[in-house]
């Protein structure tokens, strides 16, 4: 081969080497990109798995809480409540036997009666037996009637559609939403009453609690609820999200409050 042929081949060899090097770099970049994508997918799958575990843990925690409420409510009703009822009856019997001087026991009888009423109310607030025994609608009617009798707070109840077949967890959540919203309305709205609207729809159910009170800033109310005792709006919002539902809190100063939740029921809570 002549020197001229070598000179003509040199650039071709250099170009091939450069082309090969560029190809190697491209392949290496593609391999790295694929590795990054695989790692990203692994992390995403892990995050979804962790989210499912957290949701399951939160649902289990909520069920345990409600079971503990149910147990305490029954113990208070059947234990302390029965003792106070017996004490009140015993005092009444003593008052009758001591007549005409039995009037001196009237104060003790009244105190026993008040303690019995408070005990029964505590039991109902923890977990109303009517919710477990008769279902959501009677429980809501009992809640509305109790607020009217104890707090002179009028609650209108409007129910559309049959409530048969609601999962127990959905019934409990709807009751807790109504309980929290009505308690807040009675304490803070300045209104003389509120309205509860419950609507059964195809594949879901919606609950709305409406008052025409002084209203508030939603962001302020939700933050304040995190610092207050009890269930709280923030807890209700989290539970609704856990059940795959939607939470809405509409208000502004002077315009009342509408709290609404929409829950799917075809497949129950997620």
Q: Could you say what the CATH topology of the largest domain is called?
A: Heat Shock Protein 90
Shape: elongated
Instruction: Summarize the amount of helix as a percent range.
Output: 55-70%
Biggest sheet overview:
5 strands, mixed
Give the N-to-C terminal Cα separation: 79 Å
Q: In the CATH classification, which architecture of the largest domain applies? A: 2-Layer Sandwich
Count of discrete structural domains? 2
**SS elements, strand count:** 5
Strand residue content: 5-15%
Give the count of helical stretches: 7
At the first level of CATH, what is the class of the largest domain? Alpha Beta
Element-level helix/strand string: HHHHEHEEHHEE
- The low-pLDDT segments are none
What is the CATH H-level superfamily of the largest domain? Histidine kinase-like ATPase, C-terminal domain
Rg is 33 Å
Order of strands, main sheet, comes to: 1-2-3-5-4
Mean pLDDT: 82
Output the structural class. Answer: alpha+beta
Walkthrough of the structure:
By secondary structure, this protein is of the alpha+beta class. It has 2 domains: 1-127, no CATH class; 130-270, 2-Layer Sandwich (Heat Shock Protein 90), CATH 3.30.565.10. The protein is built from 7 helices and 5 strands; from the N terminus they run H-H-H-H-E-H-E-E-H-H-E-E. It has helices at residues 3-97, 106-126, 129-133, 136-151, 168-189, 218-226, 233-242; strands at residues 154-160, 193-201, 204-211, 246-251, 257-264. It has a 5-stranded mixed sheet with strand order 1-2-3-5-4, covered by helices on one side. Helix 1 packs antiparallel against helix 2 (106-126). The chain is elongated, with a radius of gyration of 33 Å.
